[in-house]
Design brief:
Layout lengths: L10 H13 L5 E2 L5 H14 L2 E6 L1 H6 L7 H14 L4 H4 L7 H17 L6 H9 L4 E5 L5 H5 L6 E3 L2 E8 L7 E3 L1 H11 L2 E2 L5 E2 L25 E5 L9 H16 L5 E6 L10 H10 L4 E5 L6 E2 L6 E4 L3 H8 L10
Parallel strand pairs: 2-3, 2-10, 3-4, 10-11, 11-13
Antiparallel strand pairs: 1-12, 5-6, 5-9, 7-8
Helix pairs in contact: 1-10, 1-11, 6-9, 7-12
């Protein structure tokens, strides 16, 4: 049976193909042309003159916003899991072989809540929105923490390629649907002993007495057939690409086609080496194909570009939030046309 989205363009497959093509073209990397100040000024100009801005966001953007997966933040909310199981960070904890479903879902309730429903510690996403709000923009991201929508970005301009912490999917592959988990997460947090503060946010109680298991009756199930559920996160071919995902994929494809020859700023933020074929490599390829385009890579310790597009590129090796704040400052006389 055909789905309503079978005839829509597939921006995800198209961008993957662009990324694979890029691997055949580019070789050596460089840190861009000019000093950091010169590159920042070129980026300001590109932002001002752009007909369209395509934002490609990775984990580094959320890390700049304070969503760190280790260190103080991890110890604050997962100290008991660290003590009992030796887990050292939130990422590795997602793969830990917990002894039972009650413990595994207690972990995931915390992981989801503090990385999806809890406010970002730093207003980095809000700074980004201020920077692009009056422009034609679109966002493609591998992040699954929903922070673009939380900051006020328009939903129809967002493509979350890898899933959403706020969604479950059934283990039954015939059910190609996703299910909102917010109500369940709040119940599971309360069941562990987290308490709400004056702002309605769950916090660790003063005596730090928390349960590491949820009641068996609270283990989440699929509302359609009662089957087990898992997170809607891309890890293998069981990942559910529901109707909303496909419509976002099509919107991304349409946006790319509409602005293919315009003055486009490909603004890459915090994209690392896990999935470069989704954002980084396609951005390189599309920049090379369009002499009017600018590629900007903002990434702490990982800011570079291929030599073939160096004159069209800006590489800023610094904290993303700090850079965005700088870009929002009024232009100096020397920066204005």
């Amino acid at each position: 049976m055909k789905n309503t989205y079978d005839y829509l363009p597939n921006g995800y497959e198209e961008t993957i193909q662009k990324g694979l093509n890029a691997l055949r073209v580019f070789s050596h990397l460089t840190g861009g042309v000019g000093t950091q100040e010169e590159q920042l000024n070129r980026l300001k100009t590109a932002l001002r003159q752009a007909d369209a801005i395509i934002i490609g966001a990775g984990a580094g953007l959320s890390a700049s916003a304070g969503f760190t997966y280790s260190g103080e933040r991890f110890e604050k909310y997962f100290f008991d899991f660290h003590s009992r199981f030796g887990i050292r960070d939130m990422y590795s904890g997602g793969f830990y072989p917990f002894p039972d479903a009650e413990t595994r879902w207690a972990w995931w309730a915390r992981h989801i809540y503090f990385n999806r429903y809890y406010p970002a510690p730093q207003p980095v996403y809000q700074l980004l929105l201020r920077l692009v709000a009056d422009k034609q923009y679109f966002v493609i991201t591998t992040n699954v923490d929903h922070q673009f929508q939380a900051a006020g970005f328009e939903k129809n301009r967002l493509f979350y390629t890898q899933g959403d912490y706020g969604l479950f999917q059934s283990v039954n592959r015939r059910l190609q649907k996703t299910y909102d988990n917010e109500e369940w997460v709040y119940r599971a947090m309360a069941a562990q002993g987290f308490v709400k503060d004056e702002n309605g946010l769950f916090q660790v109680p003063e005596d730090r007495s928390l349960q590491m298991r949820i009641p068996t009756a609270l283990i989440p199930k699929c509302p359609d057939d009662g089957s087990d559920v898992v997170m809607n996160l891309r890890s293998d071919d069981s990942f559910v690409e529901d109707e909303g995902w496909h419509r976002a994929s099509a919107a991304y494809a349409d946006f790319l086609q509409k602005h293919a020859n315009d003055r486009v700023l490909y603004l890459e933020l915090g994209v690392g080496g896990n999935t470069p074929v989704i954002v980084k490599y396609p951005f390189w390829q599309m920049t090379l194909a369009n002499p009017h385009a600018t590629y900007a890579c903002l990434n702490y310790h990982e800011a570079n570009c291929p030599e073939e597009i160096a004159v069209q590129s800006v590489c800023i090796d610094d904290d993303i939030g700090k850079t965005l704040a700088y870009l929002l400052k009024p232009a100096s006389p020397s920066e204005t046309p």
